[in-house]
Amino acid sequence: MTALDKADALRRRKGGRPIAALTAYDYPTARLLDEAGVDMLLVGDSLGMVVLGMPDTTEVTLADMLHHIAAVARAKPQALVVGDLPIHTYDTPEQALATARSLVAAGAEAVKLEGGVLQAEKVRAITAAGIPVVGHLGMLPQSVIEEGGYHKTGKTPAQAALLLADATALVEAGVCAIVLESVLAASARDITRRIAVPTIGIGSGEAACDGEVAVVTDLIGSFPWFVPPFARPEANVAESIRGATLKYVARVTNRPPSPTP
Ligand code: KIV
To answer: Which of 128, 130, 134, 188 could be joined to 183 by an S-S link, Cβ 3.0–4.6 Å?
Structure first.
């Protein structure tokens, strides 16, 4: 299937079988998630925090993204591989298209960018070049410094109306899906009802969207130092790693010392 076919298949899931999306940043994880039947693999710029040890996504570079997109793409996933456009690599439509092309050259099949009405021209430039785009509304991690933290949105009628206007502008510009992050469930549900492309929620309420996306480390419990309140871990990989390492250290250090010369 081509990237456009995959993006179209995702778009056609609107109102149908919910979409299961996860982030992935490396080859083995991408392969395992794909073999388990995930629909979309997002090489998100959450990479900065959960893999590279940065405080937020604002330090993630284009080179970081290309490196990890290439690793995920080597798994040759059936799932749609979406790469995040990192901060300040899509400040103009021309720059957005050039960055999107570089992500595609690294192996992405679609790109994701943050923001609504103000990004519509950029979405048009990228989709006109045949590259599918996923939108991202609600809490926008790349704006964490200006916003002074991570805040839920869609809480007031004015915020909900702005979100709907943003979503409508993105759909008109050609996105194949929209991630809704930390949006009040009622507002997420309303947007989901009113727009023609699937919404993919994270921290936006149970069953308010056409699908869900989770950061894989939250799902498998491999990043225990920060777990968002809405995360629902299904494994505890951090404990498995600690346990295996304790056993290894004990096995090696308790063996008889090497013969002295
Ligand atoms: O970077 C990321 O992981 C994301 C998800 C939170 C949707 O954008």
So the answer is: 188
The distance of Cα 137 from the centroid of its chain, to the nearest Å, equals 12
* CATH architecture under which domain 3-236 falls: Alpha-Beta Barrel (3.20)
Tens-place pLDDT, residues 67-124: 999 999 999 999 999 999 999 999 999 999 999 999 999 999 999 999 999 999 999 9
Active site (annotated) includes residue 172: no
pTM, two decimal places: 0.96
Report how far residue 218's alpha carbon sits from residue 234's, in angstroms, rounded to the nearest whole number.
Answer: 9
In the 8-state DSSP scheme, what is residue 114?
Answer: E
Closest C-alpha to ligand 1, atom 1:
44
Residue 45 main-chain phi, psi, to 5 deg: -80, 5
Residue 236: strand, helix, or coil: coil
Catalytic residue among 59, 109, 114, 181: 181
